Amino acid sequence: LDSVARFTPAGRMAARGTAVAVVALPYHGPRKPEAARFSGELFMSGDVIRSFESILQAVTDLRTTLRWLRDDLGMTGVGLIGGSMGGYLATLAAAVDDSPEFLYALAPVIRVTDRMEAVPLGRHMVAGLARQAVPSEVISRLQDIVDPSLHDPALPTSRMRFFAGRNDLFVPTNHMERLVARWQGVRVHWHDWGHLTALLAWPPRRLFDEVEGFMDELQS
Question: Whole-model pTM above 0.85?
Fold first, then answer.
């Protein structure tokens, strides 16, 4: 959470009247079990049931946080911002919940198991699946349940913006194109970077300039 706090330009956001709630995903940060070797190890692993339940729990956590900010704290203009796995979960939340004011997702994963071998953590998961000999068709059917491109969005696409890379090896271009084809009208900022290089190339100030501009557009 300290690294997230350093990444988030909280002072600047507070100056414009924008508060930020950082949601710790299941098995991450303060929610890391003692048995886990590192934060997030058990979120996506060779344990198929736990992995997909983690996704569903994370989406529930996001929706609960939205309601808490809006209904209990009385905040307005509450939206979702996330990158990579966070972008995927925010997008999945927007597929089932029309209450966010906006969605801004950077390099969101679309099918979480399709390109797992492209990153070290993913290779750990792939090895676990191989040890359990889980049939690929079972994984595919489970994946369909949590693939936003196979569901219609609950949130109007006019209130969404995606940031996607044409050289992203972890989120293939055709995955995002499939989402865009189903979620008609959604705006995508395409760039020529990869997955991590896109996130690293956009320093917090530049990123928040984009988010601020998008929020201002929606309010105008």
Answer: yes
